[in-house]
Each structure stands twice: as C-alpha cells, then as structure tokens.
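BUG: 3D viewer hangs when loading the predicted structure for this chain

Environment: internal workstation, default settings.
Expected: structure renders.
Actual: progress bar stalls at 90%.

Input used:
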Amino acid sequence: MDATRPDAQAAPGTDEIQFVREGAVARLFLARPKAINALNLPMIKGISALLNEWAGDDGVQTVTIEGAGERGLCAGGDVVAVRRAHLEGEDHLLFFREEYDMDALLADYPKPVVAFQDGIVMGGGIGVSAFARHRLVTERSKIAMPETIIGFFPDVGARWLLSRAPGELGTYLALTGATIGGADAIAAGLADTQIDSGDWEALVARLAQGESVPDDLGSTPPPPLKAERAWIDECFAGDDAGAIVQRLEAHRAEGARQAAELIRARSPISVAVTLEGIRRAATMDTVREVLDQDLVLADHLVTTGDFDEGVRAQLVDKDRSPRWKHARVEDVTPAEVQAAFG
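Structure tokens produced before the viewer hung:
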C-alpha cells in the first residue's frame, strides 16, 4: 500500500483512496500522488462507499478530503480511460455516472465536509471539493476547469457554481479554462477562505477534538481578477460564443485579447455548448439537476463532439495539435449546440 500515513487504511476496492479516523474526524485521502491524485473509477467508488458509511456513523462529526503528495488535491478525472472505453465500444458513461453520483452525495452530505484545496485542484478535483461545506484554499492553490481544451465542458456540477459567480466571472473561467489562485477561487464561489498550508494539521487536530470549523478561520485576500472585471463582464455577456470572442479580440485590454487566444485554441463546439450550458445552469434549482444535464452533455460530446481528439492531443499523443471538427467557434451552428442538450 502506498500509504499516505503509516496508520492509513484502504477504502473498499482500492488502495488509492485511504482514510484515517482521528477522534471525531474521518480523514479521506486521495492517494494517487504520481498522477496528482487524478480520479479513476475505483477511487470514485471508494470515496462514495466511505461517505455513505460515515453518514450513519455517530462517531464521525466531520469529514475531511485531502490529497496525498505535495502537488495538489486532484488534477481531474481519468478521461483517457473514458476515451478508451468509447473507442472500444464499452460503456463510456460508466465513469461519469459514478462520478456525478459522488458529487451529488457531497452536495447533499448531512455532515460537515472540509475540503483542503491545496495545490492543483482541477476538473474532477472541483467536483470532489467545491460542494464541501468548508472549502479551504492555500497560497499554493491552482484552480481550474480546463475541459474545453480536451473537447469537453466544465462538468461535475461546476456549472452550478460558475453560473452563480459574480458578473461574467464564471463564464470567463468556463470558456477559457484559465487557472486561478485561491483569492480568485473565493471570489468565484469555488472556495470559502484561504489558510496557510502549514496550518492544516492544527485545524484537523481541533476537528478531531470535536470542534467545528471556526467562523473566523483564514482570510480573503484581494482577488487579482477584480481589476479585470470590467472587460470580463462586458465581453462575456450574451449567448453568442462567436460574438464573445470577437469582442475580446477587439478590446483594448491585453487580458481580453489573451482570453480570446485561449478560447481560439479550444474546441469550438465545446466552447459553444459550454456557454449555453452556463446559461441553462443559472436557471436550475439544484446541483442534481445540473449533474443530470452533465450526463447528457458528456454523452453527446464524447460520441459526436471533439472529446476523442482533444484527449488524444493533450493526454495521449501529447502533440498539443488537435484537429477540431470546426475551424472557429463562429462555425458552430445554433442547431448543433441545441442538439447537445438532447
């Protein structure tokens, strides 16, 4: 066992999810550090099994979610395996069904969950942390939903959060896949407060004694993106992805033009579907409703979109030269976007 700690126990079905009981706290570790704790199917099942067990255990007052190693909590999900399943004619939705059920479990969990969003927290790492009751970033946090670069979309219920971010900040993060630090993650509603990474163990010790997370824990540093909000809110408004990119390209702000470059490098159909998905998520009533739609979108983009090609270019061959089905986001028709939603 690649144990996070000498006293760690393995979750059912995998040694890449481990746990330790310390007094009133149950600590859950994503223990796949060489892959920055990227989630595979056994890990997801192991997390769900532990959460379900602890929900009915009166001895557990608080659950923590942590990542093994020094690089981060979780770099995402095993999309290479999903691509392989699709290409081999297997159930390409199995991974997503299990993952989204786990995310829904966290969103409605009956006990306080404290997620330590230290280091890299991307994609599926958002799903396993951003619905916790207490989401703690650090000076090392790097947060992103970068899915449009692999021909996918911000899933794991993230559209629920991004669609409710101030102004068009969530739209900006969803379409560009930009990586942000802890302060901007707090501003966008993906985290709650920032603590020093060295203070985590002391907090866990307090939780083990039966204490709650203090109301005055940590701080809220000034978000760097606050200075960019004027052009973000101006350019990312509306429902036309092509018009958004054109406004960005024509804007005098350097950050706007850089955002346009980011979007131009991404899958056009994914960008257009993501924008529509953000707008639809803003009208939904529950995280579960967003997750149910995530499954529809995942099926469509894996089977008819750019997913296979995007994963190939970024994670399999790593040539970073995807051949998207559309040359530009302006070439994606409204009918193609609507078809993704079933």
